[in-house]
């Protein structure tokens, strides 16, 4: 099928005065960042491998210069690592029996394995058996954001690599793109993340692309199993999506920008998409179904600059980067990331 450009629906959101009192956000989920994790620290490698962050950034610059889509892919890669068994690089492990995280359904289309391995090789040449694959994944994700004109926030390091990887964990722990707001909050709360982490980290969808197979059925052709289009989806935007994503195509890999107005730039476009009903996933639109996440979406959509979002994003990524980490004598430092899991 020939690729055609998707019409861009630009939604302008104006901040308006209101006679209602300002909404006070609840304390739950707002105590950011969370408690520090023993063994993690900004500058953990200052003495043992002081050049590691610049080595990672140099490799990321080279990757993105060749293919801008690899940056968002590596940002997604950290989510798949951290939300499954914690940030331990278990996504990199290879299962001969095809029972690892790589083999799970949510990992379909995941990219970044080769790039993480290439970065690891560069780091190993400079600092043998010193820097974990888990830390490289976190640093690469940060630089993916930075190279898309987002913030270059401080990253805690000191993680060690896990030795186990199971597809059942990925199948159970990664929220599907069809998730409603209750399910999303549950998935995140199980990992110790609050509603604000959810709405801020969802802003990652401001860069990158998704395959038609991840959203077309739910949004375009079989909403709620009724063989119809999602009525909440902007009709002009939906018409453009239909030109790209044909019905009944199994595993349709046609790529579609998640933020069509600025797919290369880490900005507030995602939140404007959600408010304007031009976001791709049901899980994106679900943010409007909770009073707290909706208020944040609307505030970011109306914001004149991304400063607040950038600050919140740094904190939320720090929180996610602390999930179930291995530090100290736990786990290992591998020479190569793609070791055998079984």
UniProtKB/TrEMBL annotation:
One of its GO terms (molecular function) is lactoperoxidase activity. Ca(2+) 2 binds at residues 206, 259, 267. Ca(2+) 1 binds at residues 81, 84, 86, 88, 90, 101. InterPro entries: Haem_peroxidase (IPR002016), Haem_peroxidase_sf (IPR010255), Peroxidase_pln (IPR000823), Peroxidases_heam-ligand_BS (IPR019793), Secretory_peroxidase (IPR033905). Keywords: Calcium, Disulfide bond, Glycoprotein, Heme, Hydrogen peroxide, Iron, Metal-binding, Oxidoreductase, Peroxidase, Secreted, Signal. It is found in: Secreted. Residues 39-341 form the Plant heme peroxidase family profile domain. CDD domains: secretory_peroxidase (cd00693). The keyword Metal-binding applies. The active site is at 80 (proton acceptor). The record marks 76 as: Transition state stabilizer. It comes from the Eukaryota. It is an enzyme of class 1 (oxidoreductase). It holds the Pfam family peroxidase. Binds 1 heme b (iron(II)-protoporphyrin IX) group per subunit. Disulfide bonds join 49-127, 82-87, 133-337, 212-245. SUPFAM superfamilies: Heme-dependent peroxidases. Substrate binds at residue 175. GO terms for biological process: hydrogen peroxide catabolic process; response to oxidative stress. It catalyses: 2 a phenolic donor + H2O2 = 2 a phenolic radical donor + 2 H2O. One of its GO terms (cellular component) is extracellular region. PROSITE patterns: PEROXIDASE_1, PEROXIDASE_4, PROKAR_LIPOPROTEIN. The keyword Chloroplast does not apply. Belongs to the peroxidase family. Ascorbate peroxidase subfamily. Belongs to the peroxidase family. Classical plant (class III) peroxidase subfamily. Removal of H(2)O(2), oxidation of toxic reductants, biosynthesis and degradation of lignin, suberization, auxin catabolism, response to environmental stresses such as wounding, pathogen attack and oxidative stress. These functions might be dependent on each isozyme/isoform in each plant tissue. This is Peroxidase. It comes from Digitaria exilis. The lineage of its organism: Eukaryota, Viridiplantae, Streptophyta, Embryophyta, Tracheophyta.
